Amino acid sequence: TQLLEQSPQFLSIQEGENLTVYCNSSSVFSSLQWYRQEPGEGPVLLVTVVTGGEVKKLKRLTFQFGDARKDSSLHITAAQPGDTGLYLCAGAGSGGSNYKLTFGKGTLLTVNP
Amino acid sequence: KAGVTQTPRYLIKTRGQQVTLSCSPISGHRSVSWYQQTPGQGLQFLFEYFSETQRNKGNFPGRFSGRQFSNSRSEMNVSTLELGDSALYLCASSLELGSGGVFFGPGTRLTVL
Hints:
Oligomer: heterodimer
Helix content of chain B: under 10%
Order of helices and strands of chain A: EEEEEEEEEEE
Helix content of chain A: under 10%
Mean pLDDT of chain B: 92
Number of strands of chain A: 11
Number of helices of chain A: 0
Strand content of chain B: over 45%
Shape of chain B: globular
Distance between the termini of chain B: 37 Å
Largest interface: A-B, 24 and 24 residues
Strand content of chain A: over 45%
Structural class of chain B: mainly beta
Mean pLDDT of chain A: 90
Distance between the termini of chain A: 40 Å
Radius of gyration of chain A: 14 Å
């Protein structure tokens, strides 16, 4: 069973601060995705990383895929209250027919004004 | 283009009853997958359908079943409901089986009393 562990589980910061969320596994994934979920809604895809060592930027968000494709991080610069939400990482299995996504339990981020 | 729609959005049932949830994927998307989200377990994969056939299945009991119609719309059914089935049930669609990005609906909040 492929497991993804996210840390921290909860994070409460002030507007303007920087933060990093981690997603770790002992398994190798063919790709890894990050989602943000707001209360009462489904998760929204932010980014997909595929290549080991890959770095992607989405405005103030920077995503990195580990060289061994077992871990990933999400860094937010100058956090805004609108960044509040549950951040989920999800790994897709490598090869074969295992296309189902394995999700971490998420990091609940609160950005206070 | 309309997003993934799920009906109903909220549902209250009692133990022993059965329930059917419906999902309409994004137009043109042929793969539909279902997830259960609870505070304790996070997002867990239920099953994935493509071309009216179940292609992948998660580790859930046989009380959980689903199907996909020729227009790609999908339904999932839970029989003999238990208190522990209370959760947010999320449907996600993607263009093809195993494609990188999935798009989630808002979910159906099921409460079992």
